[in-house]
């Protein structure tokens, strides 16, 4: 069976194509071996409009993969379930925990309003697992807390407010003829931690592409430079830093890797 992959950005922070819309969020639509999938659903404000304008029928989606429980990645799921109630939803079970962001002295709710019982076909992705032939979910990423923990993000667990350990932060990696393609949501667990875990699973196989959010908007220049050095060790063909990566980091990546980096936006398509 051929392992051809086509990815389209349905929701992202920027847009350069007429009649399409942007929002702070992320959603990748992808076709793989005859089936159609979503990786995240954005806030849900632009998902359905953009899909219609690009000729994508969301009622045909086989599986939705959710990278974590923040509303800029899960917001479109409720409406999607209304038009496609049998769709399989694949995510870590902690996406349903109440999640917050510290804004000055207040906590702003940024979690999902959905509960697991509202989803007919929910599959928990707690550990690394093949979600479909050639599509793998990382499950929970093991990582030392000092390498990723951010006190701005809070989760309520058993009535207590704690810094979010992001157990639910998962990514996808997909086998293609070009090599492994990695899809990142926000990389709250740390880009290097995530890719190192994937490398441990795939061995010496080539990483062809890395697409997604890397949560570097507030990162230091030293951290960005360190990540550039890390990427230099990967013989990738495409790096598409989007969503929460931040402009400074994305531009630095472009300067370092030239044509191998695409500053992608809503409506862009990639084939592998």
From TrEMBL:
* GO MF term list: transferase activity
Residues in domain Metallo-beta-lactamase?
24-243
State the InterPro entries in the record. Answer: DHPS-like_MBL-fold, Metallo-B-lactamas, Metallo-beta-lactamase_dom, RibonucZ/Hydroxyglut_hydro
| Top-level taxon | Bacteria
Extract the Gene3D superfamilies matched here.
Ribonuclease Z/Hydroxyacylglutathione hydrolase-like
**A Pfam family for this UniProt protein?**
Lactamase_B
CDD domains recorded: DHPS-like_MBL-fold
Q: So where does this one cross the membrane? A: none
Descriptive protein name: 7, 8-dihydropterin-6-yl-methyl-4-(Beta-D-ribofuranosyl)aminobenzene 5'-phosphate synthase
- Source organism (scientific name): Halanaerobium saccharolyticum
């Amino acid at each position: 069976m051929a392992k051809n992959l086509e990815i389209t950005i349905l929701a992202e922070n920027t847009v350069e194509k007429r009649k399409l819309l942007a929002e702070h969020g992320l959603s990748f639509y992808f076709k793989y071996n005859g089936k159609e999938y979503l990786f995240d659903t954005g806030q849900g404000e632009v998902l359905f409009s953009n899909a219609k304008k690009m000729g994508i029928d969301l009622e045909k989606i086989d599986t939705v993969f959710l990278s974590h429980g923040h509303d800029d990645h899960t917001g479109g799921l409720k409406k999607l379930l209304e038009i496609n109630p049998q769709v399989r939803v694949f995510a870590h079970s902690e996406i349903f925990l109440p999640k917050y962001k510290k804004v000055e002295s207040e906590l702003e709710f940024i979690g999902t309003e959905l509960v697991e019982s509202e989803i007919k076909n929910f599959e928990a992705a707690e550990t690394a697992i093949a979600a479909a032939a050639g599509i793998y979910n990382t499950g929970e990423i093991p990582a030392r807390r000092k390498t990723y923990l951010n006190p701005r993000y809070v989760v309520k667990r058993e009535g207590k407010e704690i810094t979010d350990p992001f157990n639910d932060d998962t990514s996808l990696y997909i086998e293609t003829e070009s090599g492994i393609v990695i899809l990142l949501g926000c990389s709250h667990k740390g880009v290097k931690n995530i890719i190192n875990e994937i490398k441990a699973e795939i061995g010496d196989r080539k990483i062809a592409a890395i697409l997604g959010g890397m949560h570097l908007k507030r990162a230091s220049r030293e951290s960005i430079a360190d990540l550039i050095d890390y990427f230099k060790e990967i013989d990738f063909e495409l790096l598409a830093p989007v969503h929460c990566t931040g402009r400074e980091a994305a531009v630095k990546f472009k300067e370092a890797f030239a044509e191998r980096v695409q500053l992608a936006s809503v409506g862009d398509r990639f084939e592998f």
